[in-house]
Amino acid sequence: MEKNKGNKGYLIGIVLVAVLGGLLFGYDTAVISGAEKGLQAFFIGADDFQYTDAMHGFTCASALIGCIIGSAVSGILASRLGRKRSLILAGVLFFISALGSMAPEFLFFEKGHPTFSLLIAFNIYRVIGGIGVGLASAICPMYIGEVAPSNIRGMLVSWNQFAIIFGQLVVYFVNFLILGEHTNPVIESIGQGVNTVVAGSDPWTIQTGWRYMFGSEAVPAGLFAFLICFVPETPRYLVMIGRNGRALGILSKINGREKAAQILQDIKDTITVRTEPMFTYGMLVIFVGIMLSVFQQVVGINAVLYYAPRIFHDMGMESPMVQTVIMGVVNILFTLVAIFTVEKLGRKPLLICGSIGMAIGAFGVALTFGNQSLNIVCMLSIMVYAASFMFSWGPICWVLIAEIFPNTIRGKAVAIAVAFQWIFNWIVSSSFVPMFNMQTAGDPNFGHWFTYGLYGVLCVVAAIFVWRLVPETKGKTLEDMNKLWKKA
In degrees, to the nearest 5, what angle opens at C-alpha 478 toward C-alphas 477 and 483? Predict the structure, then answer.
């Protein structure tokens, strides 16, 4: 049977383990949404420094600094350590970050006593986790793309995005369960970026709740680090290091022996050397890869995902954590739309349709936010905005980044593209709150409509970019990318 057909169970098994990295990616980046108010209240209680809005913004986004570092070095690690060992390293970093963020006082500080030194320690642990996220964000789709047959590669890489969104939904739900009957502290501004915790705020959420939220990540992180030890290295990397026999064995299990021999020859034909100079195939392929990453972020979706409870609270919703969980469920459902249509409809149509849907949702939020009589319309617009992203830019960007680069530059090119993704993620996440809170003398809601109006315009620009410059890669092998870009 293996002679003509691959072992689907074997392929599914290794892909499921790999997408756990995506789940951790989503879990780590979204855990802050439920924990940030308790964390803010905890450090407001410090007596050796004043914990300002700027410090809190930096602390909430500090993991993204690690993401930039992790993605930037992912190409070097993927080429030198291999895809598998790089993912093991990512799992270990996730695990260390989870435990360290839960108990940053470990060994060096008095537990429960906030100080500036403790704040630094906490941010270091978050950066460590971010490095793991950066590695996983670049290497998980690369790993899946390099083991998957070309006819289902888009669908399998899309499962990585499903895992990211599922990880976010899981952590929204875990945060909701951890909070339980407790309530988030009430924080009141006293001017110039300084806040105070309102008397009567729940002390449990200030001292303990946020710790459990961060610590909960240790469970999936430990599982991922353990399971990834049992998956094979990718055939394309094995060929690059001269282990052709091992590569053929893995390809045979996945594709069947006859097909495996053909694929192995195609890989050997395109990997004449281990790497080639970055611009061997011209600047356009690098530019397209970078701009796919940039547009995935500047459309503004992560500002919604990271600050969802605050946004729904500002809209006047009575249970913002419940609305956040509902949004997570909607995100899951529409990610499934991409998974089951990407090989039928192609990459470009989904990206263009998603961009248009996001623009409609963003403009809807811009026009209705702050109008209490239109709260339902505003919430539905946010759902349309998020859902449109989830069946398009969310998964399809990762599919394209995993497959558009030729074999011999893939490691370095993916690292550059994903590094830009995290840089713009940080820019969008850190700029959202100040933009959103902008006011003018004549318009106290100026920041609301300006922010979402800007995101809507960028969605339109993204649609034009895809239409004019992004090639359709549906049905093409990774080896076909060499020919595609040489022609370009």
Answer: 90
Phi and psi angles of residue 375, each rounded to the nearest 5 degrees, phi first: -55, -40
> CA 404, CA 400: separation in Å to the nearest integer?
6
Please name the residues in contact with 110: beta carbons below 8 A apart, sequence gap of 6 or more. none
Q: How many CB atoms lie under 10 A from the CB of residue 194?
A: 12
The upper half-sphere exposure of residue 460, i.e. CA atoms within 13 Å in the direction of its Cβ, equals 9
* Pair of tokens at residue 394: 């969310």
Q: Which helix (H) or strand (E) covers residue 188, if one does?
A: strand 187-191
Report whether pLDDT(57) > 60: yes
Q: Sorting pLDDT into bands at 50, 70 and 90, what band is 99?
A: very high
- For the chain, the helix, strand and coil percentages under 3-state DSSP, each to the nearest 5: 75, 0, 20
Contacts of 47 (CB under 8 A, 6+ apart): none
Decide if 233 contacts 254 (C-beta within 8 A). no
Tokens 């030729």 correspond to what residue? 406
Angle of helix 116-147 relative to helix 8-44, nearest 10 degrees, comes to: 160
In whole angstroms, give the CA distance from residue 399 to residue 396. 5
**If you search the block for the tokens 């192995």, which residue do you land on?**
264
Backbone angles phi, psi at 194, to 5 degrees: -110, 140
Rounded Cα distance between 29 and 97, Å, is: 12
pLDDT class of 169 with cuts at 50, 70, 90? confident
Q: Answer yes or no: are the C-beta atoms of 144 and 19 closer than 8 Å.
A: yes
Q: Which residue is listed with tokens 């049905």? A: 475
| CB-based contacts of 136, cutoff 8 Å, min separation 6 | 21, 22, 24, 25, 70, 87, 90, 94
Using only C-alpha atoms, what is the Rg of the chain?
Answer: 23
Q: State the Cα–Cα distance between residues 147 and 235, nearest whole angstrom.
A: 7
Give the span between the Cα atoms of 21 and 228, in whole angstroms: 9
For residue 193, the cross-strand partners are none
**Judging by beta carbons within 10 Å of its beta carbon (0-12, 13-18, 19+), is residue 404 exposed, middle or buried?**
buried
Asked if pLDDT for residue 238 goes beyond 60, the answer is yes
Name the nearest CA neighbour of 112 among 38, 186, 33, 6.
38
What is the rounded CA–CA span in Å between residue 19 and residue 27?
12
Instruction: Collapse the DSSP code of 194 into the 3-class scheme (helix H, G, I; strand E, B; otherwise coil) and give the result.
Output: strand
Closest C-alpha among 204, 219, 58 to residue 126: 58
Instruction: Specify the pTM.
Output: 0.77
Short-list 288, 332, 291, CA closest to 166: 332
189-206: pLDDT as tens digits? 777 667 788 888 889 999
Instruction: Determine the Cα–Cα distance for residues 247 and 329; give it in Å rounded to an integer.
Output: 39
Terminal CA-to-CA distance of the chain, rounded, Å? 41
Helix (H, G, I), strand (E, B) or coil at 115: coil
